[in-house]
Design brief:
Strand content: 25-35%
Largest sheet: 5 strands, antiparallel
Structural class: mainly beta
Number of helices: 0
Helix content: under 10%
Radius of gyration: 14 Å
Length: about 100
């Protein structure tokens, strides 16, 4: 519909602290952007670090498909990213596609 979900509730997702896993302590959705908070079974130095996954899209072209960028990955030419990158995990530890 051309509007990113405002938050977890608007996207019909569980509350952030209820989206957890082996390496994830929460996932907060804000205006279409996923903010992944790390912890659990990861080494302590990663606890509380954040990886951001942002949707990217062609502005003013609702029919164009969206894609995603992770962490510090560059936004493809001709596209814009929703929200802001709040990644705090050091570049060395980010997956290659997220650098």
């Amino acid at each position: 519909n051309g509007v990113w979900p405002k938050d977890n509730v608007a996207a019909d997702l569980p509350m952030p602290d209820k989206i957890i896993g082996n390496y994830l302590t929460s996932m907060t959705l804000k205006d279409g952007v996923m903010y992944l908070s790390l912890g659990q079974q990861l080494p302590d130095r990663f606890h509380g670090k954040m990886i951001t996954i942002r949707p990217v899209y062609v502005e003013e072209s609702i029919d164009s498909p969206i894609s995603w960028v992770c962490g510090n990955d560059e936004v493809p030419a001709g596209m814009v990213a929703a929200g802001e990158n709040a990644t705090t995990l050091e570049e060395l530890y980010l997956p290659l596609k997220c650098r």
